[in-house]
């Protein structure tokens, strides 16, 4: 199963880029990972069109959105593991733009995940997401990274 992270905004974000790269490289031990960046556009509808153009019909889409459900790290692992068991070829995580995502993206999402009730800058969301995907794989494999 491949993981694709689609993120609206600038590719380079500054101080957290090294940490994002570190967790991305760790994820590669378990699954192929690709990042796809979409520049911020005039409207979330235009960004949504770009995102929809990347998605395949069979993709399992997880949208990161403040209106989603909060998950524990164990629940994230279960969500990913269930997609592996289901034979999903690709799980796509979407980080929308500053004003969220279009209704079409909400409709297309198979699951909507709320990272926190707090608001984070995009760079930090990317880092948290990468770390949580890595943590999920270590939970699935029973490795000692996760000490809950």
Architecture overview:
The protein has 148 residues and is α/β, with parallel strands linked by helices. It has a single domain, classed as Alpha/beta knot (3-Layer(aba) Sandwich), CATH 3.40.1280.10. Helix content is 42%, strand content 22%. It has 5 helices and 5 strands. It has a 5-stranded parallel β-sheet. Helix 1 (17-27) packs parallel to helix 5 (122-141) and helix 3 (73-86) crosses helix 5. The longest helix has 20 residues, at 122-141. It is globular. The model has no long low-confidence stretch (mean pLDDT 94).
Task: Offer a concise description of the structure.
It contains five helices and five strands. It has helices at residues 17-27, 44-54, 73-86, 103-108, 122-141, and strands at residues 2-8, 33-38, 60-69, 90-95, 111-113.
- Helical run tally: 5
Number of domains: 1
Main CATH class = Alpha Beta
Known CATH architecture? 3-Layer(aba) Sandwich
Computed CA radius of gyration, to the nearest angstrom:
14 Å
**If you consult CATH, what is the topology?**
Alpha/beta knot
Catalogue the unreliable spans: none
Global morphology? globular
SSE order, one letter for each helix or strand: EHEHEHEHEH
What class, by secondary structure content?
alpha/beta
Spatial order of the strands forming the largest sheet: 2-1-4-3-5
Per DSSP E runs of 2 or more residues, the count of β-strands stands at 5
Features:
single chain, alpha/beta, 148 residues, globular
């Amino acid at each position: 199963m491949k993981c694709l992270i689609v993120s609206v905004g600038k590719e380079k974000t500054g101080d957290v880029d090294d940490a994002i790269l570190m967790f991305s490289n760790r994820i590669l031990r378990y699954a192929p990972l690709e990042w796809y960046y979409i520049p911020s556009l005039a409207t979330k509808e235009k960004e949504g069109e770009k995102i929809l153009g990347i998605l395949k019909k069979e993709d399992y889409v997880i949208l990161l959105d403040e209106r989603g459900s909060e998950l524990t790290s164990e629940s994230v692992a279960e969500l990913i593991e269930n997609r592996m068991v289901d034979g999903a070829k690709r799980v796509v995580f979407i980080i929308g733009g500053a004003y969220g995502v279009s209704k079409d993206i909400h409709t297309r999402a198979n699951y909507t995940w709320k990272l926190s009730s707090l608001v984070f800058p995009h760079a930090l969301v990317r880092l948290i997401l990468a770390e949580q995907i890595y943590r999920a794989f270590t939970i699935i494999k029973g490795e000692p990274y996760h000490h809950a």
